[in-house]
Design brief:
The chain is built from eleven helices and 21 strands. The chain is an alpha+beta fold and 373 residues long. It has two domains: 86 residues, no CATH class; 257 residues, Rossmann fold. The chain is globular.
Length: 373
């Protein structure tokens, strides 16, 4: 016997039909994120209300709410309507599935990628642990170069000089490369995640609006371009190992990548700007359009009108923005323009620029959570 129902936004008291103690992740879809849960006690009172956070492919709760027991009664205060599809004997599949390849914007892929954008802000060892255990990647590479820390630390005059006079660029580059074999595609999946503006200093590369020529051609933001050059240098000699045990260099073995790989580039805020420039660079060196997708979240504009017009049709780029996020609107006060297809999300409940804001607003679209393809 199956139970299919839509629970509307608001308060619901339910007794979940279980035959054994079951993880919360296996009972509800990710749509439950940012709703509240309480358990009924024997004295007819409820336990302390707790907010359910969705992060790294799972619900984050205290131990009390990790599992639900048979016939246990819970009270949910739902942030949004959710669908339930339960079997009384509870033989349902986990809500994490493989998805079909999509040529257009894929909201499920976007949800997965913004979680990786959020993950990259954590400590390297925490990232590494989650990449293997929760995201099931086979290989992990991480690098962090924070030039502004050495250049500006304790020397405010240098910071101000850089803003207004100096040709010196304060350049940061934090990114991770993830690899695994994807059975659906029958290809090597390569995911490049660029860290965004976690700290106020990171915006030093944004707010000067200095322009430079992109490989002596169209103009782009100088700070972003200098970061791109640092990225190119960091991968120029680094060998990767594919699931076929073949070694390749991302910037050199173009035929191998086009025939055997799918590349996903992503970044939040400043990281989205870097992902954009990396996408156009990889296109220039021969990576085919169908072999690469770029998803950015809350990204500022990156280049001149000539630059964006040149690359708009050359790469698959989906620029996800929250409606009230001011960072993507920098194009209104500068000569910088945006690249790619714009996907606008409603900025619900003051959810504006953080990774968690983007995660929650994507969930509001009603995503069916699926793994990357």
């Amino acid at each position: 016997m199956k139970i299919k129902k839509i629970l509307k936004k608001g308060v619901h008291i339910i007794s979940v039909p279980l035959s054994c103690e079951t993880k919360l992740d296996d009972i509800f879809s990710h749509e439950l994120a940012n709703s509240f849960i309480e358990k009924l006690n024997q004295d007819s009172s409820y336990t302390k209300k707790e907010k359910i956070i969705f992060e790294d492919n799972q619900f984050k709760t205290t131990l009390l709410y990790k599992t639900i027991k048979p016939l246990e009664t819970i009270r949910l205060t739902l942030k949004r309507a959710i669908s339930i599809n339960w079997e009384v004997e509870f033989n349902s599949d986990n809500n994490i599935k493989k998805c079909k390849v999509s040529k257009g914007f894929d909201k499920n892929k976007a949800l997965q990628l913004i979680q990786l954008c959020s993950l990259i802000y954590e400590d390297k060892e925490q990232i590494k642990n989650k990449v293997f255990k929760q995201y099931k990647f086979d290989n992990f590479y991480y690098t962090s170069k924070k030039n502004h820390k050495n250049y500006t630390q304790g020397k405010i005059y240098k910071t101000l000089y850089t803003f207004f006079k100096s040709s010196y660029s304060i350049v940061d580059l934090q990114f991770m490369q993830l690899n695994r074999y994807d059975k659906v595609l029958d290809k090597e999946l390569i995911v490049l995640v660029f860290q965004g503006s976690q700290e106020s200093e990171d915006w030093l590369t944004n707010i000067t609006f200095k322009m430079t020529k992109y490989f002596n051609k169209e103009k782009v933001h100088k700070g972003f371009y200098d970061t791109l050059k640092l990225f190119i240098k960091s991968i120029s000699h680094r060998e990767c190992l594919s699931y076929k045990k073949q070694k390749y260099i991302l910037s050199k073995d173009i035929d191998f990548i086009n025939n055997n790989c799918k590349i996903l580039l992503t970044g939040h805020s400043l990281g989205g700007a870097i992902a954009t420039l990396v996408g156009t660079y990889l296109s220039d060196i021969g990576i085919k359009k169908e072999c690469m997708d770029v998803y950015t979240f809350g990204s500022p504009p990156v280049g001149s009108k000539a630059y964006t017009e040149k690359y708009n049709q050359k790469i698959n780029l989906f620029r996800v923005i929250n409606k009230n996020d001011i960072v993507p609107k920098i194009d209104k006060i500068s000569s910088l323009k945006h690249l790619g297809k714009e996907i606008i999300l409603a900025s619900n409940e003051n959810e504006i620029h953080s990774c968690n804001d983007y995660i929650d607003n994507l969930i509001d679209l009603g995503c069916d959570f699926e793994l990357l393809t």
